[in-house]
Amino acid sequence: MSLRADAPAPPGARVRRFSRAERWVHRTTAALMGICVVTAAILYIPQLAVMVGRRELVVRVHECAGIALPVPVLLGLASRAFRTDLRFLNRFGPHDKVWLHAALVRDKRRGSRPAGKFNAGQKVYAAWIAGATLVMLGTGLLMWFTHLAPLVWRTSATFVHDWLALTIGVVLAGHVGMALGDPEARRGLRTGTVSREWAKREHPLWRP
């Protein structure tokens, strides 16, 4: 016998966290970002450049992956669940300030970091990586299509592109490291569901 839609789930039940469309957007974006990072490393680290060779091909792959990077998110806008989660990510509340303060002072007590479906750290990361991606896309286009701007603009774009790429690599490494430390969060991105216990512990203000 199935539970009514408004009936409470049993303690050990799993709850829906992400739709199939949201998981597709995350995986595809992660794959494209990974290609950008790997090809950038090959282009800028001499040892890797010598080992791989075929610089022109690597440049083309890097450019194509960079141009395609916003596409999964744009396609994901067709999903109502994805649009709803974007609104959650873009909305900061008083509890997010509490979460950020606890994170800054390294307060790990249970209840010291209240969070809805997304915690404040995830919201800050999402906003930062979205802005960084747009800057990388804009500077990359200036570097690719040399006739779009004068030399001084292209030189500045190259400087910003290179240093921001390094920053993105560091931030992504931290993002992956945190994900590796939370198997249930990874399971949520892989299967779309998480345990109710995890949801109550990590996102107590979330009402799935």
Beta-strand content estimate:
under 5%
Helical element count?
10
Regions with little confidence, pLDDT below 50 for 5+ residues:
1-9
Secondary structure category? mainly alpha
Radius of gyration: 20 Å
Give the overall shape, derived from the CA principal axes: elongated
Describe this structure in words.
It is a single chain. With 208 residues, the protein is mainly α. The protein has ten helices and two strands, in the order βαααααααααβα. Strands 1-2 form a two-stranded antiparallel sheet. The longest helix is centred in the C-terminal third of the chain and has 30 residues, at 151-180.
What does this entry show, briefly?
The chain has 10 helices and 2 strands, in the order βαααααααααβα. The protein is an all-alpha fold and 208 residues long. The two termini are 21 Å apart.
